[in-house]
Each structure stands twice: as structure tokens, then as C-alpha cells.
Amino acid sequence: MKPHTPPGPWPLVLLLVAAVSVEAALVAGSVVYTKRFKTTLLAEPSPLAAAAGELALGRKLTVTESKGNWLHVSDGPQAGWVFSGNLAEIPPVETKGLDGLPVAAAQTTATAAARGLTPAAADYASRRGLESAREDLDWLLEQSANLTDEQVDEFLQAQKKGEYK
Amino acid sequence: MNPRLLLVYTACLALVAGPARAQFDFSKLTKAIDKAKTITDTAKDASKVAKGAAGIGPEEEKVIGDSVALEVIAKFGGLVRDEDVSHRVNLVGRALARYSDRPGLSWRFGVLASDTVNAFSAPDGYVFITRGLYDLAASDDQLAGILGHEIAHITRKHALNIVRRDEFFAGSKSLLEKYSGDYRQASAAAGQVDAQLQQFDVGVGKITAGLIEKGFDQPTEYAADQAGHNLAALTGYAPGGLRSVLVQLQQPGGQAKKTFSTHPPLKERIKRLPDEPAALPSPPAP
After folding, report:
1. Is the distance from CB of B118 to CB of B260 less than 8 angstroms?
2. What does DSSP assign to residue B264?
3. Distance separating alpha carbons of residues B201 and A140, to the nearest angstrom
4. How close A29 gets to chain B, by Cα (Å)?
5. Hey, which residues 141-160 in chain B have their CB within 8 Å of chain A?
6. How many helices (H) and strands (E) does chain A have?
7. Where are the extended beta strands (E) located within A30-98?
8. What angle do CA B202, B126, B89 make, to 5 degrees?
9. Least Cα separation, residue A71 to chain B (angstroms)
10. Which residues contact B79 (CB under 8 A, 6 or more apart)?
11. Does B170 touch chain A (CB under 8 A)?
12. Chain B partners of A143 at a C-beta cutoff of 8 Å?
């Protein structure tokens, strides 16, 4: 009889990680919302699957099935798979601020990340004598703008993170 | 040209031109001032029903975030301007932020040139980690745990809830309008700009003091711990990353008394986080 060998630590690690994933997953019948300007519905629960549709920001969806962190959702006649991290359990609460503008969530991350210091904040820096901090912040904004969404996506793929797990 | 600006401009020209036309132009100037006051009153009415973050619009959040970020950077000795460090912290941070509840914010992650051990967030996606804490986060799993906590503060608008919108923007319809040229000139005629800017500066000061000196209340911090933990796990990082850093700090010589001065006691935070793996077999970020 083959002697029993205690398992190494990794099965336990994977079990615990899986437990978190299951906890995060939603059951059929749950309601979720899109949280991006555009959310792609996929034909299969895989980031490489063919697109089955596209949804706008703030759409209310019904979960019809779940597989790990992937949810099969429907929005009327449209249906498909979406990684759960690309959906929210609560709707975007703001549609407009009192400044009368649409929510920042409606913008792409790339556009938002590339923005420079707002003129009002530049004025604030001058008023408060924060020129040195402003130089640092300008440097940070430039560094951030140089990191594109495509690079972040490549990183996620290489590291097998997010929907590429 | 905007009618308000035109009125003020015309009135000012006329006042300089001579007394014969002064009465007529003064009347126009008065109308312009009245119009500016109407804008003010409208804003005051709106602010009565707009409390806290709910009333602050995305463009206003950008201005507040930038201003608070400037204060945080100034108070912690500036930023570490190391491109490799910046690349790593922004890569891990942006990977997490992609799956946060507010993926469209302008997410920026900076390392403060301070050897204290702490981390801060400012509205509109600014996350700062001190060099002292960054050096402790050897693995991306640990770094993700720390950044996830701060991301949760931003997505839940904890800092914006420190002040009410009307404390920030009393005296103007919106910060954007306040900074538009025509409104500034009209408001200047009414002697309002300085007061408005002072009001804004006081608001930024309150948020900065809340972040740096007082910190959030303990329930808020525990909620951010849990939300950050969940975000890190969802993104694929080891869920025990944050907890392992806290445990590390609690060890003898771990600077426990000097760390996270604006956060709840390490012991309590550790107790409330699940005891899970602190690392997964993933290579560090390139």
C-alpha cells in the first residue's frame, strides 16, 4: 500500500483562494450593473472568447449562471459572459454631480489617467507656496500617463491576474 | 462674449470714461453684481440639500483631489522620483483599480519620500505609500494588499465625506464656474473671489488634516481593510498580503509603535482580517 504522503502547502493555498472566489461569485438570479463606459459580453467565460455584445454604463443585468469569477448575464435579448470584476453589485449612484457633468466612470481610464493638473489646483499650489510639491505631482502625472491601459492589460495577462486567471 | 462679462466690462469702461455716463453704467454694473449674487444664492440653495460626497461632482472631485495630493506630497518630503519604483507601484495599483467600483477615475500611485510607515489616499484616485512602507512590501501580493485598502477609501469617497459640499463651495455655483474667466471677473466686481478661494482652501485643509492627522474612524478603516482584501483577491493576488505586512510590523523591531499612526491598532486590524496565504507563486511586476 502506498504510504500516505501529507500534501504540501499549495493545495491548501489554492483551496483558500478558491474559497474567496466562490464567496465573491454571485448566484443565478442576482442583479449586477455595468461600471464601465463599455462592457463586452463574451460567448464563453474566457477573455479570449468572441464578443457576443456590448453594454453601456450603468446597465442592470440579471445573472443567469456563474463559473468561478465569471458570470453569465442577460440584459433583455443580449446575453453573454463577463468577468465579475468588470461588474458591480450596486449601480453607479451618481449620474451627475452638482457641477452638472456626467460621472467620471463614463470616461475611459486612459483618458482620465492622461489628464494633467487641473488649473484650479495649479492656482492652489501657487497660493499655498507648494511649487516643489507641484513639480513632484507633475512628474507623477507624467509617469502615470506613460503607463497605458494596454500595458496594464499585458501585465495582467503575463501575471495571470484578473480575467486572465 | 458672455453677457455677464460684457455688462461688467461695459460698466467699467463707462465709469472710467466720465461722470456724464456714470449713472447709466453704474446701473449695469449693479445688474452684473446682482447676477453674480443670484448664482451664489442658487448654489447656496443647492448646497442645503447636498451633503458630503453626494453633492460633489466629478470635475470638482478632480480639483479637490489634486489639491489634497499637493498637500500630502508637501507634508511628507516630496515624492520618490524613481521610475522603476513608480512603474511597479502604478502597474500593481492600476491592475487593482481596473476591477474597483470606480475604474474610470484618474488612478495615480506615488511613493512619498518618508521613512515613516503609512499610506494615504486623496479623492479622484490618488494613492500614496511612504517609502518606509513600500520597502516592507517585498512581494506584489503585499503591495496589492496595501494599495487595495487605499483604493477602497477612494471608491467609497471616505475623504470627501470629511467635509460637506457647502463648506467647500459656499459662495459659488461650482468650482468650475468659479475658475472660468467670466465668472471670476463678475465675482471680482462683487468682491467675492478671495472669500471663495479661502473657503476652498479651508475645505482642502480639513480633508488633509483628516487624512494626515486624525485618520478615518475605526469602522471605516476596518471596512477598507476588508474591501482591499477582497479587491486584491479578486484581481488574483494572495488575499493575505495586507495581513502579512501588518503581522511583520507587529514583530519585535517591526516599528509597530511608529507605523500607521492614522490607522487603528495593528493587533485589531490583524484580528479582523482572515488568516490566509500571504503570497502566491507569481513573479514580481516587471
Report:
1. yes
2. -
3. 23
4. 21
5. none
6. 5, 7
7. 31-34, 38-42, 51-56, 60-67, 70-75, 78-83, 87-88
8. 150
9. 13
10. A136, A137, A139, A140, B73, B110, B111, B112, B113
11. no
12. 83, 86-87, 90
Give the number of C-alpha atoms closer than 13 A to the C-alpha of residue A4, restricted to the C-beta side: 1
Subunit contact B58:A100, Cβ cutoff 8 A: no
- Check A69 against B98: CB less than 8 A apart: no
- A98:B63 CB<8 A: no
Contacts of B67 in chain A (CB under 8 A): 120-121, 124-125
For the entire predicted model, the pTM comes to: 0.76
ipTM score here?
0.79
Contact between residue B127 and residue B153 where contact means Cβ atoms under 8 Å apart: no
C-alpha cell at B4: 455677464
What does the pLDDT profile of chain B (286 residues) look like in tens digits? 444 444 444 333 333 333 333 333 334 433 443 444 443 443 343 333 334 555 788 888 899 999 999 999 999 999 999 999 999 999 999 999 999 999 989 999 999 999 999 999 999 999 999 999 999 999 999 999 999 999 999 998 888 888 776 677 654 455 556 565 665 666 665 566 677 788 889 889 989 988 888 888 888 999 999 999 999 999 999 989 999 998 888 876 666 556 666 777 888 888 888 887 777 655 555 5
| Dihedral-angle region of residue B171 (phi above 0 means left; psi in -120 to 50 means alpha; beta otherwise) | left
Q: Do B90 and A143 touch (CB under 8 A)?
A: yes
